[in-house]
Specification:
The chain is an alpha/beta fold. The chain contains ten helices and eight strands. The chain is about 45% helix and about 15% strand. A six-stranded parallel beta sheet has the order 5-4-1-6-7-8, with helices on both faces.
Length: about 220
C-alpha cells in the first residue's frame, strides 16, 4: 500500500472540497464591511493561506484591528456553513481507513483550526480515521513554516524518512521541503501539475487513489 509508516495530509482541497463554504464566508465578510467582492478564482487561489493573510489579500486592508474584526465575522459565518457545505472527496474516507488498516499512522496538518476539522468529520460521517490533527490553532507559525509538520512528527515519534506529506497547494510543497519530508501532490486545488514540478515531490496525482496506486 505504502512504504511510508506515517501519512500526513493537508485538509482543505486535499481531503475535502470546502470551496463552496469558503467562498460563501469570504463573500459574506467582504460585503458586511462594504468591500468589493473579487471573482471566484481570485478567492479560490487564497485557499491554503491563513485567514488573516487571505483577508488582507482580498480586501487590500492592512489595518490589524480591522482585519481582526473581519476575521471574527468570517468565523461567525463559518460556524453556520463550513461543516455543512464542505464535502469529502469520494475516495477520502475509504483511503484513510485503508491506510490505518495497513498499519499506517494518519495525520492532518492544516491552517484550518483543529475544532473545525473535527466538526466537519462529525457532521458528515461516524468514522474518524485520523490519529492526530495539528490545526492552525496549534502553532505560532503558519505553513510554509514547518512548525506544524515538525510538531506532528514529534508527537508520532516518527523518523522523517518514514513520513509522507500530501497536499494540494504549492504552500504544502514548500512546507514538506522546509520540514525535510517527502511530498506528494494532488491537483484538486488551484496549483497545477506543472507548478508542482518546481518543488521536490515523489508523485503528482489527480486524486488520493491515484497517488497511492503509484507510490
Amino acid at each position: 500500500m505504502s512504504k511510508y509508516k506515517f501519512c500526513i495530509f493537508d485538509f482543505d482541497l486535499t481531503l475535502v472540497d470546502s470551496s463552496k463554504a469558503i467562498l460563501t464566508c469570504y463573500k459574506h465578510t467582504l460585503a458586511k464591511f462594504g468591500l468589493p467582492i473579487p471573482d471566484h478564482k481570485t478567492i479560490y487561489k487564497t485557499i491554503g493561506k491563513t485567514l488573516a493573510d487571505s483577508l488582507k489579500i482580498l480586501s487590500g486592508i492592512n489595518d490589524d484591528d480591522k482585519l481582526e474584526q473581519m476575521r471574527l465575522e468570517y468565523v461567525r459565518k463559518a460556524d453556520e456553513v463550513m461543516a455543512r457545505d464542505t464535502e469529502f472527496y469520494d475516495d477520502t474516507l475509504a483511503m484513510l481507513q485503508i491506510l490505518q488498516c495497513a498499519g499506517v499512522k494518519v495525520g492532518i496538518v492544516s491552517s484550518k483550526f483543529r475544532y473545525r476539522i473535527v466538526e466537519t468529520f462529525r457532521h458528515h460521517t461516524s468514522s474518524f480515521p485520523i490519529d492526530l490533527i495539528i490545526g492552525g490553532d496549534d502553532v505560532k507559525e503558519a505553513k510554509p513554516d514547518p512548525q506544524g509538520l515538525e510538531l506532528i512528527i514529534s508527537k508520532f515519534n516518527a523518523c522523517k524518512a518514514d513520513v509522507l506529506y500530501i497536499g494540494d497547494s504549492y504552500i504544502d510543497a514548500q512546507t514538506a521541503q522546509n520540514a525535510g519530508v517527502d511530498f506528494a501532490a494532488v491537483t484538486t486545488g488551484s496549483t497545477t501539475a506543472e507548478e508542482f514540478e518546481k518543488y521536490p515531490n515523489i508523485y503528482v496525482g489527480t486524486s488520493l487513489t491515484d497517488i497511492f496506486q503509484h507510490i
